[in-house]
Every structure is written in structure tokens, then in C-alpha cells.
Design goal:
Largest sheet: 2 strands, antiparallel
Strand order of the largest sheet: 1-4
Shape: globular
Radius of gyration: 19 Å
Helix content: over 70%
Length: 310
């Protein structure tokens, strides 16, 4: 097992432990919470795209399922938030398992369009079931409670998502260094060669898709509880594209690249807000330059330049 990635985990733990004590105000703490939430989502998506080589342009749909499970079930049926969160995650995993085999028979832009269609269907369903979801206007989300303690402020949420981020990074590093992870990398390189050496391609594709959907749904629920409000925009196509962009900018097939991509692209819109209407242009220009000069993503490019692999 390589030591370098786990040294990075220790450094990440130190940064997360110190960060809330050096941030100047609650605005930056809120931004840090959103960065951590996005980082966890993007790590799961990178396992699917970067390591397994399977594109998903509708991943925000699974976020929407989790978010609305945590809004609808406690509000309309009185469920405990943790039970609602788990139910949403299981529902997302079952949906992913159901569609994985037919979808992953496709390749290239056909696969991209199929996953895009899945995300659009979920988004439309959330918009149309207005009696349960509030329709396009969205709905409030009850507070989360753990062991009888309500999580209500940014600092409490920070420690929750920071712990989840560390666990996610640790689990992902172990996963990609396991036989399962090596099988994912093999089918990314060549599905035919993988089949020749005995890899069940369909099973591995389906498994990583289910894992990624489950993770996205859990974080959709947590994000909904943190924000306190949810709308169908959270599950739309543009959010899916934003998540994929985080994967690409940070670095595909890079766990720490996922974290870096999520941090940068969560903070960037805030940094560009002073451009007064030109922030979208500036955002697009930065992304274009990254793709031209850093086609492998930030972390893999820098790691290769300094002679260290992840």
C-alpha cells in the first residue's frame, strides 16, 4: 500500500481541525461546510468517472432524491430525519441498481445521454409532484437531530461534514488500492482486456454506480438539512454539470483532486461575484484555460511535475 496518499489524509485532517479556528467569520465557515459537502459528492462521482471510466450527467438527480426524502418524509409522515436519510439513500441505490445494467451497455455519448435523461426524469418528477415537494417553489427541510441533539449552527455542521469527508477520503483510498479498485482501473483502460482476465465488467460498473448514487443521496440529505430549504434546482442538469466539472478540474482518478476541484469551484463563484455580471464569463475563461494547460486536472498535473503519484 502506498504511503503518500495516507500522508495526505493526515495533512487533510490537520487542516480540517485548524480551519474553523482561523476563519474570520460565519460566512467563510458556511463556505467551508459547502466545500466539504461538495468534496464528498465529487469523490463518489470521481470513482465512477475517473476510475471506472463511466460518465454520469444526471448525478444531481440522486442528490435530489436524498434531499427530498429528508424533506418529505419528516414533514408529511413524521419520520425521524436519520430514517428518512437512510430511506432516500437506499431508494437511490435501488434505482441505480435497476438502471445500471441497461444504461452501462451503452458507451460514449450514448451513455452520457442516457444518464442525462435519468437526471431529467428525476428533476421533472420532483417539480410535478407539487402536493408533496412544493413544486418549483421547493419546501422547507426540518432540522437534523443526532442522539437527541439538534444540529442547528454552522460550527456543528462543520464538524459533522469534516468527519464525513475524512472517512470518505480514507475509504476511497482503501477502495482504489483493493482488488475492487484495481478491477475498476482495468475496465477503464480496456473493457475487453478486463473481460479476458476474468473481470465481470457489468457487475463492477453496476456496483460503483450504486455506491456513487448512495453517497450522493446521503450528501443530498445532509445538504438539505444544513441549508434548511430545498428546490428542484438542486437536482437539475446544471448542477450535474457543475459536479462533473469539479471532477475534471481537480483531476480524474484522483481522490485529492476531487477535494481540490470541489474547493476551487465552490469558492470561485464567490470570488468572481465582484465582476458584476461578468462572473460567468470569467468562470468560463478560467475553466477553458485549465483544460488547455492542465488537461489531466490540477492534482495529477502537479503530482507528475513534482514526481509524485497519488
Amino acid at each position: 500500500m502506498k504511503k503518500t496518499p495516507f500522508l495526505g489524509l493526515g495533512l487533510l485532517a490537520v487542516v480540517l481541525a485548524v480551519l474553523p479556528f482561523v476563519l474570520p467569520n460565519s460566512f467563510y465557515l458556511d463556505l467551508a461546510v459547502r466545500m466539504a459537502i461538495n468534496a464528498i459528492i465529487v469523490i463518489g462521482l470521481n470513482l465512477l468517472i475517473g476510475f471506472a471510466g463511466q460518465i454520469s450527467l444526471g448525478h444531481a438527480g440522486f442528490l435530489g432524491i436524498g434531499a427530498y426524502a429528508s424533506a418529505v418524509l419528516p414533514t408529511h409522515f413524521g419520520w425521524h430525519p436519520l430514517l428518512a436519510l437512510l430511506t432516500g439513500a437506499v431508494a437511490s441505490a435501488l434505482l441505480a441498481a435497476l438502471v445500471a445494467r441497461p444504461i452501462f451497455k451503452l458507451k460514449g455519448h450514448y451513455l452520457a445521454m442516457a444518464t442525462l435523461g435519468l437526471g431529467i426524469i428525476i428533476n421533472i418528477a420532483l417539480r410535478n409532484e407539487a402536493q408533496w415537494t412544493g413544486g418549483p417553489d421547493g419546501m422547507a427541510v426540518p432540522a437534523m437531530a443526532l442522539f437527541g441533539i439538534e444540529i442547528s449552527n454552522d460550527r456543528q455542521w462543520y464538524w459533522v461534514v469534516a468527519a464525513l469527508l475524512l472517512v470518505t477520503v480514507w475509504a476511497s483510498l482503501n477502495l482504489i488500492d483493493s482488488p475492487f479498485g484495481r478491477a475498476l482501473r482495468a475496465l477503464h483502460g480496456s473493457e475487453v482486456a478486463s473481460q479476458v482476465v476474468g473481470v465481470d465488467v457489468a457487475r463492477y460498473k453496476g456496483a460503483i454506480f450504486v455506491m456513487s448514487a448512495f453517497s450522493a443521496s446521503v450528501m443530498g440529505s445532509i445538504s438539505a438539512h444544513y441549508i434548511g430549504f430545498i428546490s428542484p434546482a438542486y437536482a437539475d442538469f446544471f448542477h450535474s454539470i457543475e459536479l462533473v466539472t469539479m471532477v475534471v478540474i481537480g483531476g480524474m482518478a484522483s481522490v485529492y483532486g476531487s477535494v481540490v476541484g470541489a474547493v476551487l469551484l465552490t469558492a470561485l463563484p464567490q470570488a468572481l461575484a465582484t465582476f458584476e455580471g461578468w462572473e460567468t464569463v470569467a468562470f468560463g475563461a478560467i475553466l477553458m484555460l485549465c483544460m488547455i494547460f492542465l488537461p489531466r486536472g490540477l492534482v495529477p498535473t502537479l503530482a507528475a511535475r513534482f514526481g509524485k503519484g497519488e
